[in-house]
Amino acid sequence: MKKLSLIFLLICLPIAFISAQELGNRVNEDESKVHQYTLPDVLMCNNGMKVKTVKEWESIRRLELLEIFSSQEYGRTPTEKMNVSYDVLSEDTNALNGKATRKQILFTFTNGKKNIEAILLLYMPNNVKGKAPVFIGYNFLGNQSVTEEKAVFASPSLHLVEGANSNVWTRGSQKNRWPIEMIIDRGYAVATMYYGDIYPDDKGLRDYSIVSLFSDYDKYSIHHDEWNAIGAWAWGSSRVADYIINNESKIDSNRIALIGHSRQGKAALWAGAQDTRFKVVISNCSGCGGAALSKRVFGENIARITSSFPHWFCPAFNRYAGNEANMPFDQHELLALIAPRHLYVASAEEDIWADQKGEYLAAYYTKDVYKLYGMEGLDSPIPPAINQPIQNDVAYHIRTGIHDVTDFDWTQYLNYCDKYMR
After folding, report:
1. Is there a cis peptide before residue 340, judged by omega within 30 degrees of 0?
2. Beta strands 132-139 and 251-261, pairing class
3. What CA–CA distance (Å, rounded) separates 102 from 93?
4. Which residue, of 89, 138, 166, 253, has the greatest Cβ tally within 10 A?
5. Number of H helices, E strands in the chain
6. Backbone φ, ψ for residue 17 (5° rounding)
7. What is the mean pLDDT of the chain?
8. In 3D, which of 313, 79, 115, 312 has the Cα closest to residue 213?
9. Shortest CA distance to 257 belongs to which of 188, 197, 195, 194?
10. Distance of alpha carbon 372 from alpha carbon 231, whole angstroms
11. What digits encode the pLDDT tens for the residues 28-72?
12. Do residues 233 and 199 make contact, with C-beta atoms less than 8 angstroms apart?
């Protein structure tokens, strides 16, 4: 009997695997084929009570939603304290032709037996009287990619990246995404770190991530709420905030904006939901598992993203692959966790994969939570025209172009932060 069961299992496993692949390949990019869906009421508590006050939101519903996203999508962030030391590798008060002070700080995370290193690249404006606000965000190709300044060190974990010697990873290769001089000229500091220093973006490199330092680490864990890369990147953003708040007197710890693009937009939203020190949270083209509504099943869907990037989410999220209709939550509830702080969601016209309409609607459906605080969300379920930003307490724009971060994006973010962080 046991032998027959084993044979049956071996026969069925390939079928199940093929079905999962097929689900991921069924990508809809036709708005007319979006099925009707029902979003959960962001103010409806698990016991059926409708939230009517800020106190009820903060003491009941907000905590319920944090639990949902911890157990069902991103995994549970450890409460265990991790030891970290900081070493200033270099400091130049005449960076960018005298406009900025540039510091490079080595973070060493340790559990006493093993170390993980990361480098924070920090630019602070020299022309600001008093303390400057700051943008915190990860870069994708190493600190050396965001500037042509030769004194900027390459990031520690680049040796783990196959092909890191190619032109893609060269100095200044992604400076278009980080217009540092523009940001400095507007009076803001910039703090960036290579995301691979915190969790190398590969399912086979979990042992090299900060996740591996925690006492309950199990390389092969498939526990339903096991945290993975997005959770780790979110955790790392909070550690950057720790450093700045406790060590940089020239930066205003009450004016910290967190920005993330694409997969880092997902991580920024999750970090902002958990850590209230981020006063502005910016999601740039974050798509599925970020700002876009999952229940629309448009563009990249859960089946596709969990099969392509199995190391991003917790195992429980896999149960919603091809099963979005039965999800008891959706991304508008994640975005609502930013309230009463300020939220900016941005899309690109050609970035159909990220479901621009789904990103807008998720931001729109946070309005009832912001209303509790006497704040103004987005006024209409109809998205704005291309290149016509809406900058209420909740902001949104869709610009011309592709999945990227552009000067247009940064100009809007700076204008928004001027409005709400000055």
Report:
1. yes
2. parallel
3. 6
4. 138
5. 12, 10
6. -65, -45
7. 94
8. 115
9. 188
10. 28
11. 999 999 999 999 999 999 999 999 999 999 999 999 999 999 999
12. yes
69 SS3 class: helix
CB neighbours of residue 39 within 10 Å = 18
Task: Please report, for residues 135, 183, 252, the alpha-carbon distance to residue 272 in angstroms, rounded to integers and kept in the order given.
Answer: 13, 21, 18
Kindly state the DSSP code that residue 189 receives in the 8-state scheme: E
Among 238, 236, 280, 289, CA closest to 258: 280
State the amino acid at position 132 in one-letter form.
A
* 265 close to 405: Cβ distance less than 8 angstroms: no
Strand partners, 190: 123, 135
Kind of pairing between the strands at 100-110 and 83-94: antiparallel
Sheet holding 280-284, edge to edge: 83-94, 100-110, 115-125, 189-194, 132-139, 251-261, 280-284, 342-348, 394-399, 390-391
From CA 224, how far away is CA 220, in angstroms rounded?
Answer: 12
φ/ψ of 264, rounded to 5, equals -80, -20
pLDDT of residue 66: 98
User: What dihedral angle (degrees, nearest 10) is formed by the CA atoms of 175, 177, 180, 184?
Assistant: 170
Q: Could you tell me the two tokens for 77?
A: 């962030």
Is beta strand 132-139 parallel, antiparallel or unpaired with respect to 189-194?
Answer: parallel
- Placement of tokens 């890369």 in the chain: 229
Q: Known catalytic residue: 223?
A: no
Distance CA 178, CA 156 (A): 20
Residue 363, phi-psi category: left (phi > 0), alpha (psi -120 to 50), beta (remainder): alpha
Q: How far is CA 302 from the centre of its chain?
A: 17
| Conformation bin of residue 262: beta by default, left when phi > 0, alpha when psi is -120 to 50 | left
Q: How far is CA 67 from the centre of its chain?
A: 18
| Residue in the block written with tokens 């962001």 | 42
For range 4-9, the mean pLDDT: 37
| H/E stretch holding 244 | helix 229-247
Which residue is associated with the tokens 């939220």? 343
Which residue of the set 262, 283, 286, 347 is catalytic?
Answer: 262
Q: Judge whether 135 and 241 are in contact, CB under 8 Å.
A: no
286 and 359 Cβ atoms separated by less than 8 Å = yes
Reading the block at residue 382, the tokens are 């109809």
**Any catalytic annotation for residue 403?**
yes
Calpha distance 77→97 (Å, rounded): 41
**In the structure, what pLDDT confidence band is assigned to residue 9 with cuts at 50, 70 and 90?**
very low
In the predicted model, is pLDDT for residue 294 greater than 80?
Answer: yes
Tokens representing 66 are: 């944090």
What does the buried/exposed string (b/e) look like for 373-408 if buried means 16 or more CB atoms within 10 Å of the residue's CB? eebebbeeeebeeeeebbbbbbbbbbbeeebbbbeb
